[in-house]
């Protein structure tokens, strides 16, 4: 086993601290939840998760967005599914989310605060949303 230099250890420590900071939920106002049940994984949810993580990092949103995984959301026919919960907008579940749709979700929903109607498969009924 090769030994690490002090500089390599410091770099590794910095990388791990950054990973932990991204997972911290305190102060974050946007939740992005990827359905990672067996149906979701079989449909490509791991690639979707990685794409979301990449775009969130690219757009420097890590301080606002917490990216989570959950089990099956019950919408197996439109996997991979992604739920978005953020202040000022209804919680929605997007379906058939590939890497291109993941980028669109970050750019249009998280940043532009616009719903992607073509990919919404579940959202609260208008009569139960409190204003």
Describe the protein.
The chain has 131 residues and is α+β, with helices and mostly antiparallel strands. It has a single domain, classed as Glutaredoxin, CATH 3.40.30.10. The chain is 39% helix and 18% strand. The chain has helices at residues 6-23, 38-43, 45-58, 99-111; strands spanning 30-35, 65-70, 82-86, 92-94, 120-122. It has a five-stranded mixed β-sheet with strand order 2-1-3-4-5, covered by helices on one side. It is globular, with a radius of gyration of 17 Å.
Provide the descriptors you would attach to this structure in a database record.
131 residues; alpha+beta; Glutaredoxin; five-stranded mixed beta sheet; 5 strands; 39% helix; globular
CATH-scheme architecture: 3-Layer(aba) Sandwich
CATH topology: Glutaredoxin
Number of distinct helices: 4
Largest sheet: 5 strands, mixed
Order of strands in the sheet with the most strands? 2-1-3-4-5
Mean pLDDT: 88
User: CATH class, anyone?
Assistant: Alpha Beta
Q: Tell me which oligomeric state these chains represent.
A: single chain
Radius of gyration: 17 Å
Terminal-residue CA separation: 60 Å
